Amino acid sequence: MEDQLSSNDNAEQVTDATDADSDQSVAELSAALAAAEAQAGASQDQFLRAAAELENFRKRAARDLDHARKFGLESFAAELLQVRDSLELGMEAGEEDASVAALLEGTAMTLRLFEQVMDKFGIVQIDPQGEAFNPELHEAMVMLESDAPPNTVVEVVQKGYQINERLLRPARVVVAKEAAGESGDTA
Questions:
Q1: What domain range is 47 assigned to?
Q2: 94 versus 65: which is more confidently predicted?
């Protein structure tokens, strides 16, 4: 029976040790869980802040883009006002029976002012008279037989324009073509 008591004592000691280990393990797991929950909360807070910042950035970018669309031409328009003023002065001078020479001089001055505004904003005139036809910059209106080399611009119907090397309007041109009898064939 003593053996049986001794075995019961051993069993109780093992159970007590297991209970102590179990309590310690539960405490460790609870601490790990609390740390993980704190980390998850911090991560969620960071995510929400980043999402809010991204949304603010999108709104700011949309507002800046809208502002650029509305007011991007503001300085160009302000410069064009000088040209309008000059034209209005010319009209007033014409109403006062000014001489043709004075009106012509005023128009020439206005044209120079307009050219200065265009230069200031990178607008370049395309006047290809006598140059080789370039389909990237020119629009052929007609092809005529001419003494000029084939595919040469012989007349500019309407000048073209580029802004910062980007085509605004192609030059409308008349292009030379080879005369009917000059094909180079000697039959």
A1: 1-71
A2: 65
d(CA 124, CA 131): 16
CATH number for the domain spanning 155: value is 2.30.22.10
Tracing tokens 């040209």 back to the chain, one arrives at 83
Q: Classify residue 48: in a domain, yes or no.
A: yes
- Region of poorest pLDDT, from 9-13, 124-128, 153-157: 9-13
Give a yes or no: residue 187 inside a domain: no
Rg (CA), the chain: 43
The answer to whether the beta carbons of residues 151 and 175 sit under 8 Å apart is yes
- Which pTM was predicted? 0.58
Q: How far is CA 145 from CA 25, 66, 115, 127, 177, in A?
A: 101, 51, 34, 21, 5
CA distances from 13 to 6, 8, 90, 91 (A): 11, 9, 115, 116
Place of tokens 């003494």: 147
Residue 171: count other Cβ atoms within 10 Å of its Cβ: 26
Q: Are residues 18 and 64 in the same domain?
A: yes
Answer whether residue 186 is part of any domain: no
Query: Does position 6 have pLDDT exceeding 80, yes or no?
Result: no
